[in-house]
Structure formats: structure tokens, C-alpha cells
Amino acid sequence: MLAVGGVSLITGGLYLWAMHTAMYAGIPGVPPMPAQLVFVAANTAAAGLLWWHRRFPVRVFAAILGVYVATALAVGFAGNGGLTLPLWFSVFALTAYAPLRRAFTAAVVGWLVSTAVKVYFVLEAGYQLTVAEIGLGFVADVGFFYFACSMLGLGFRFQHQRANDAAERARLIEERSRAVHAEAVATERNRLARDLHDLAAHELMDVLLTVRAMQIDSDHPDLPEIEQKTARALDNMRTVVRTLREDDGGDGPDRLPLPDAATRLIDALRTERDIDVRARIDLPVSVDDATASTVLSVLTETILNAV
Q1: What pLDDT digit, counting tens, does each position of 248-292 carry?
Q2: Is the Cβ–Cβ distance between 8 and 43 less than 8 Å?
Q3: 100-124 vs 85-97: helix axis angle to the nearest 10?
Q4: Per-residue pLDDT for 130 more than 70?
Q5: Of 119, 42, 27, residue with least CA distance to 75
Q6: Coil/strand/helix, residue 155
Q7: Are 114 and 79 in contact (CB under 8 A)?
Q8: Helices H, strands E: what count in the chain?
Q9: Which backbone phi and psi does 222 adopt, to 5 degrees?
Q10: Average pLDDT, stretch 284-304?
């Protein structure tokens, strides 16, 4: 905004200096200096509207075009391309940020209005122009600025869109990589849990049952201690297995009702072990998380032992 206003002010000053020199050279059609000053000041001040060129590109363009037309009709001077830099930058913002259909419609309307204003002043000055002269001298002249600024805006839009697309693709690739990694981690954890349960936990259970059987016929003083340590080791092993089988996504018993969690557990074991499990779950009351975890653990143990 400040850059456009500054360049517009410098351009206007150079133009006024040139016109001031030309006035003394007797060139007809040169507007009075006060009119030029008002026109340059008003159109330079219009650069302040560019503060909102991203949020409201169509409104900003319409407002700056309105300033241009109003000042031109008020002072009788339409200036040239160099004195209306805020207008050309608003055309750029129009095609860069506004919806394309509305942007092109507004640009065409602005082009026709700007051309009509210039042709009006030329005809008011008494010049006789042919249709070809009007088309080449004004329609094409003003159209060049509109076309050039529109193309710059389109180029910026497409470049920005390509950057956004690249960022979106990078985000999707990263999400996919995370999903693949999470799936690999979950698979490995389930494998470890299955191995621990099928091998270590069953071995400990065999030891525990053997010790308890020995206690029936023997009163050896070390057997109770061995039984306690084996039972504690088995409990710890089951805790590790249960922890490994927990889903990081949040489908644990503290997040799912027990019937849903049990159904999901049975379905998972049915698929994992390729077995036929038929179940009917009736739970007339709600249970706390600790009870749900215990029930799911017992359910898992029961199915795997049956396998």
C-alpha cells in the first residue's frame, strides 16, 4: 500500500513537472495545474484502500475506480496510466484474490468505464476521432493496462495455488507416513503381545499349576513362596500383554462401552486367529473402567486358551 502510494506520488510529480513545462510551450489541451494536482492527490490517496485488497478485492477495485471516475469528472482531467497506479494494482489484486468469474466481470466493466471517461474528455475538447482512432488510441491503450495487470494477478494466483497444492501434498504424504508407521508399530506390538501370551504366559501358567499340584501331596516350605512369585510374575506378564494390546487411537474400555469393546475384541481375535467365535453379550448394568479391563482380559485369556 505504501509502496504503491509512494510510486504513484513520484510518478504524479514527474508528470506535473512535465505538464507545467508543456503549458508554457503552448500545447493545447493541457489541463490547468490545480486540476492536475487534485487528480494526482485523490488517486494517490486511493492507495490507502489497498489495505483491504486481500479480503475485499472486488470492493477495493470498485472503490478505487470510483475515485478515479469521480475526480476525473470533477476536475475535467483523466490523466494517464502512470497517474493511476492504485487502480492498476487493484486490478492485479482483483484477479489474484477474487473469484475468477467476478474478477473478470469487474475488470471488463472497469475497462469499459475507464475507456468511456477518456473518450468523453477527448470529444469534449473538440477533437474529431474516427472509430479506428478511438479503438487504437483509447480502447487498446486502457485495455493494455487492464490486460497486463490481470495477467500478473492470474500468474500470482496460479503460483500461490501451486504452492498451496505442494504444501497440501506434503501434508498428505506426512500423514500417510505417520499412518503407515503407526500401523507398523501397532502390528509389532500385537505380535509381541501374542508371543508373550502364547509362550511366556502359558509357560508361567503351567509352572503355577504344577506348583499348586505339588502342594496337594507335599508340604515343602518353599512351595507357597514359589507359588506367590509365579502368580505375581504371571500377573505382571498379563499386564504387559494388556498394555501392548492397547490401541493408541483411543478404543480402550475407558472410551468404549463394555459390550462394544468386547464385540470388537472378539471380532479382532476371530480375524487374527481365523477361528469361529459365537457370542451373545448381555450387560444390564454399566461397569467401571477397572471392571471392564478385567472382563476384557479374562475374555481374551479364555478365547486364546481355547485356541
Answers
A1: 444 444 457 888 888 888 888 787 777 888 888 888 888 776 677
A2: yes
A3: 160
A4: no
A5: 42
A6: helix
A7: no
A8: 11, 0
A9: -85, -15
A10: 77
> Considering only CA atoms, which of 13, 16, 14 is closest in space to residue 31?
16
Alpha-carbon distances, residue 234 vs 90, 242, 246, 283, 305 (angstroms): 75, 12, 18, 29, 15
Burial class, 205, CB count within 10 angstroms (exposed 0-12 / middle 13-18 / buried 19+): middle
Would you state the cell numbers that stand for residue 62, as one nine-digit string?
Answer: 470498485
C-alpha 41/C-alpha 165 separation (Å) is 42
The one-character DSSP state at 252 is: S
Q: How far is CA 87 from CA 51, 114, 142, 201, 263, in A?
A: 13, 10, 12, 79, 67
Q: What digits encode the pLDDT tens for the residues 90-119?
A: 888 898 898 888 888 998 898 888 888 877
Closest CA to 160 of 107, 93, 103: 93
User: What's the rounded Cα separation, in Å, for the pair 35 and 76?
Assistant: 7
DSSP code for 201: I
The pLDDT tens digits for 174-217 are 878 887 787 787 777 777 777 776 667 777 777 878 888 888 87
